[in-house]
Amino acid sequence: MIGIEQSCERARNSSCMNAENMSTKWTDLQKRFIQSSRRPLPRLNNGLLPSSSGKQKARLMRDALEASV
Positions of the region Disordered (predicted)? Predict the structure, then answer.
């Protein structure tokens, strides 16, 4: 009787460990995907996408040039 209880306990522990490993693997995969994603996330770069910040920089430089002339 004791042997069966021990094997059940062992099986329960190993399945919990597998579930933990799977969830950490999944979060690692998600992190890696987010990092390797070509398109940057909007919340990075102060909420501006690179295209809009590039346009802003160009506008600021143009305004500065016009002001200095």
Answer: 37-69
Per-residue model confidence (pLDDT) at position 44: 54
DSSP-derived secondary structure for the chain:
-HHHHHHHHHHHHHHHHHHHHHHHHHHHHHHHHHHH-SSPPTTSGGG--HHHHHHHHHHHHHHHHHHH-
Q: Return d(Cα 20, Cα 14) in angstroms, integer.
A: 10
Q: Is the dihedral of CA 22, 25, 31, 35 positive or negative?
A: negative
For the question of whether the overall pTM of this predicted structure is more than 0.70, the answer is no
